[in-house]
Amino acid sequence: GNLLDMNKPNDILQETLPNVVAAHVIQSYVGSYGSMIHPVGACATAAVSLEEGVDKIRLGKAELVVTGGYDDLTLEAVIGFGDMAATADTEVMRGKGISDSRFSRANDRRRLGFVEAQGGGTILLARGDLALRMGLPVLAVVAYAQSYGDGVHTSIPAPGLGALGAGRGGKESVLAKSLNRLGVGADDIAVISKHDTSTLANDPNEQELHERLADSLGRSDGAPLFIVSQKSLTGHAKGGAAVFQMMGLCQILRDGVIPPNRSLDCVDEELATSAHFVWPRETLRLGEKYPLKAGLVTSLGFGHVSGLIALVHPQAFLAALSPEQRESYAAEALERSLAGQRRLASAIAGGRPMYERPDGRRFDSEHPEKAQEAAMLLNAASRLGEDGAY
């Protein structure tokens, strides 16, 4: 407005602040009072967010944390990624005889970059005892969540090996011990959902990272490590990408089904010598024949930030319960899950919207608001009632 000599809102500055998008959603639709942080880690943002949530729960600062990430499509990013040759060039890919839906082709010898996407999602992290009390459906147990830097570099986007720090100490590493506490060994890590941007630089670097990590943890030579390159289906949502990956891994563990890498025609010669990796070309329905206990997610971002997440099958949560707890929890969690599905179906069919802005600030309009708010904040027993007021 200033540069173009046009009228502008007086408070337009707030729209330039990185935290305002998340803050607006919270203050408008949720109205929470808990600890708030807005991590920004480029394409690793959602993974860093999950790490922050895990840390808050383990430090006793929270029982439940809303984590996740989101990113949009912008003209600046589309042009910028194209100028860097980070995204697949449509004319070049078509010239190679590759259909548009197969442009994103991680680990393939004809890969030339990712297909940009927009979106993201939300992951609710809950302490185990809270999930039990509330009957919250558990999709996976977070065994490990950590972010890393890559040391000294002269290039912002160049990939690095910082996340290999997860294996520091080998079988005595924090990662290995965290998995062992849940009954998971190195060979039980069945799946890796890789960042896999289909760029010439990222894919081999990430393979080296995971090969070295597997060796450090003591993985057996004959144990297959299935690779899932989810961006070939979803595109690269940047800050929200790790949410797609983590939810995809939860579904893999739940169903015992490993999806195929359909865009992968021929593994790049630089990658084909992998000692541990297996790239499925068809759907593998393993079920009880080969139970999938755990998997890893790697998420990498410009600025040399990387995140590594280890998720374990929800059976690890159930195994910690007594038979009586397990039975009552299963019934309540099932009812919650069904209620959620019905609610979603109703909203899609034109029923009440999934999200509605609350009326007012959730206090009794007949009494002074600040006095009610102060009393609520100082009372450990305060809860939001079914009528939408404290």
Task: Please explain how this structure is put together.
- It is built from twelve helices and ten strands.
- It has 390 residues and is an alpha/beta fold.
- It has one domain (40-320): 3-Layer(aba) Sandwich (Peroxisomal Thiolase, Chain A, domain 1), CATH 3.40.47.10.
- Helix 7 links the parallel strand 4 (189-193) and strand 5 (225-228).
- The two termini are 42 Å apart.
Would you state the CATH class?
A: Alpha Beta
Radius of gyration: 23 Å
Tally the helices. 12
**How is the CATH topology named?**
Peroxisomal Thiolase, Chain A, domain 1
Q: State the major sheet.
A: 6 strands, mixed
How many β strands by DSSP? 10
Percent of residues in helices: 25-40%
Distance between the termini: 42 Å
Could you tell me the mean pLDDT? Answer: 94
Strand content: 5-15%
Number of structurally distinct domains? 1
Which word captures the global form? Answer: globular
Name of the CATH superfamily: Thiolase/Chalcone synthase
Give, in order, the helices and strands: HHEHHEHEHEHEHHEEEEEHHH
Which architecture would the CATH scheme give at its second level? Answer: 3-Layer(aba) Sandwich
The stretches of 5 or more residues where confidence is low (pLDDT under 50) are none
Strand order of the biggest β-sheet: 3-10-9-4-5-7
What would you call the structural class?
alpha/beta
Entry keywords:
6-stranded mixed sheet, globular, 12 helices, single chain, 390 residues, alpha/beta, Peroxisomal Thiolase, Chain A, domain 1
